[in-house]
């Protein structure tokens, strides 16, 4: 039975008295705030975004922080819901803020980035300043911004967890995932990035490449079928966000791209057979595998 997003849940014990800060109020960060507001309205939520116009829009969901220093000072658990390059930039800044603050308890930092290994490594350099758990929600879509966020975005979905050590930080991450209505999956950060290069990185590369193909006639738009729409759907994603997770996973992404390039070359070679038997055999072989 799917639980309605408006149903109030009992707050997990590890969140008793916890103040949760969310940096980045786009689709993922905004959905976290909306989900927690709906499911655990007694939690204290704090938000920070570079778009100052959001200040009034998020008022009924969370308190607004004026700076990174402020949200670090005021939060017990801080979620970085921004593109991967921004996460890598923010982690040392968060560590500095946490070290200089008069905290009442150790800071727990989580991120929601698409790529995990470089983020986990960077966070490991600041283990004296905060505990860290890397999360990757498999829930986002091609739409961007606060307007694309919703309270039920994570309902029934999966959130990957990459944690170096088991302990209170990981247990807290588990309870956060439960509050969001999702299921947690544990994967090693390096293994995660290898798989993501195929399952998320490759589709985005193909979508943008196909979307950018030159055409000789404007009439071609009227001939786009559903298969074209499926292929190019994610090409409306924010290029900075997509470029960020492709670049930070460049080694694995290059490996996957070269494997796909090899298959494209096989298709080109098979098309030289005018009977069609060679391409049919190749397609049957790939489908069977």
Structure write-up:
It is a single chain. With 289 residues, this protein is of the alpha/beta class. It is 46% helix and 13% strand. The protein has eleven helices and eight strands. It has helices spanning 27-39, 54-57, 68-74, 84-100, 117-124, 168-179, 189-211, 226-232, 239-248, 250-270, 277-288, and strands at residues 19-23, 44-48, 63-64, 77-80, 107-111, 130-137, 158-162, 183-186. It has an eight-stranded mixed sheet, sandwiched between helices. β2, α2 and β3 form a beta-alpha-beta unit. α3 packs across α4, α4 runs parallel beside α5 (117-124) and α7 packs across α10. It is elongated and about 75 Å long. The protein starts with 18 loop residues before the first strand and ends with a helix. Mean pLDDT is 89; it is low at 1-12.
Average pLDDT works out at 89
Strand percent estimate: 5-15%
Structural class: alpha/beta
| Main beta sheet strand tally, sense and closure | 8 strands, mixed
Helix coverage percent: 40-55%
Q: Which stretches of 5+ consecutive residues score pLDDT under 50?
A: 1-12
């Amino acid at each position: 039975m799917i639980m309605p997003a408006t149903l109030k849940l009992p707050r997990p014990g590890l969140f008793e008295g916890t103040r949760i800060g969310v940096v980045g109020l786009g689709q993922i960060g905004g959905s976290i705030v909306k989900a927690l507001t709906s499911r655990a309205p007694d939690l204290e939520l704090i938000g920070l975004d570079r778009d100052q116009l959001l200040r009034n829009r998020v008022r009924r969901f969370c308190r607004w922080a004026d700076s990174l220093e402020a949200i670090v000072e005021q939060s017990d658990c801080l979620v970085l819901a921004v593109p991967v390059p921004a996460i890598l930039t923010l982690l040392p800044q968060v560590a500095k803020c946490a070290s200089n603050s008069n905290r009442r308890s150790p800071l727990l930092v989580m991120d929601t980035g698409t790529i995990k290994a470089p983020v986990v490594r960077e966070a490991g350099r600041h283990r004296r300043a905060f505990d860290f758990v890397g999360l990757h929600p498999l829930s986002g879509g091609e739409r961007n911004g606060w307007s694309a966020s919703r309270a039920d975005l994570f309902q029934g979905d999966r959130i990957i967890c990459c944690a170096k050590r088991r302990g209170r930080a990981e247990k807290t991450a588990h309870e956060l995932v439960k509050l969001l209505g999702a299921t947690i999956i544990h994967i090693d950060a390096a293994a995660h990035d290898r798989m993501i290069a195929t399952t998320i990185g490759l589709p985005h590369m193909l979508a943008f490449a196909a979307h950018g193909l030159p055409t000789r006639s404007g009439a071609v738009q009227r001939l786009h079928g559903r298969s074209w729409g499926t292929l190019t759907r994610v090409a409306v994603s924010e290029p900075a966000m997509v470029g960020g997770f492709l670049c930070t996973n460049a080694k694995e992404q290059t490996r996957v791209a070269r494997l796909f390039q090899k298959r494209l070359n096989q298709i080109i070679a098979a098309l030289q057979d005018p009977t069609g038997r060679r391409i049919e055999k190749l397609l049957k072989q790939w489908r069977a595998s």
